[in-house]
TrEMBL record:
This is Hotdog fold thioesterase. NCBIfam families: unchar_dom_1. Transmembrane segments: none annotated. The keyword Hydrolase applies. Keywords: Hydrolase. Belongs to the thioesterase PaaI family. Pfam families: 4HBT.
Length: 142
C-alpha cells in the first residue's frame, strides 16, 4: 500500500519544477514507488565543478528536490506544506559523466517533521553520495 496522500503524475511533477533550479539543471523525477521517489540528474556543463566532476552542490539539489517533493506528497497540501530545515551530504566518489540517479525514502514521518534519506548512484550503479534532509511540516497560515 502506497504511503502517499496525493500522487500526481510524473509529468505534473516535472512541469512544476521545469522553471526553477531543478529544471534548469536538467533534473527529472522518474519514478514514484510505494514508499520512495526517484529522479535523475545529468553530469554535464551545468552540474560539473571546475575539476570536471559532478559538483557536490548538484548532489544536494537532487537530494533536496527528491526529499521536498516526497515530503509534500505525504501531507494534505490544502492544510500543510513541507520545507527543508537541514540537509547534509557525504560525497563518496566522483562522477565525471553520464547521469546520477537518486532514490529518496522517508526515515521518519511525524506530525511536525519528516526525515528523508537519499541515496545517489553513479552510472555504474555504485553509491556516489548519501544525503539526509529534515523537513518541517507547516500549517497554512501558521
Amino acid at each position: 500500500m502506497a504511503i502517499w496522500h496525493d500522487t500526481p503524475t510524473l509529468e505534473e511533477i516535472n512541469q512544476g519544477t521545469a522553471q526553477c533550479m531543478p529544471g534548469h539543471l536538467g533534473l527529472e523525477i522518474t519514478e514514484i514507488g510505494e514508499d520512495y521517489l526517484e529522479g535523475k540528474l545529468p553530469v554535464d556543463h551545468r552540474t560539473r565543478q571546475p575539476f570536471g566532476i559532478l559538483h557536490g552542490g548538484a548532489n544536494v539539489v537532487l537530494a533536496e528536490t527528491l526529499g521536498s517533493i516526497g515530503a509534500n506528497l505525504l501531507v494534505d497540501t490544502s492544510k500543510f506544506y513541507c520545507v527543508g530545515q537541514e540537509i547534509n551530504a557525504n560525497h563518496l566518489r566522483p562522477v565525471p559523466e553520464g547521469e546520477v540517479t537518486g532514490r529518496a525514502k522517508p526515515v521518519h514521518i511525524g506530525r511536525t517533521s519528516q526525515v528523508w534519506e537519499i541515496l545517489i548512484y553513479a552510472p555504474n550503479g555504485k553509491l556516489s553520495c548519501i544525503s539526509r534532509i529534515t523537513m518541517a511540516v507547516v500549517a497554512h497560515g501558521g
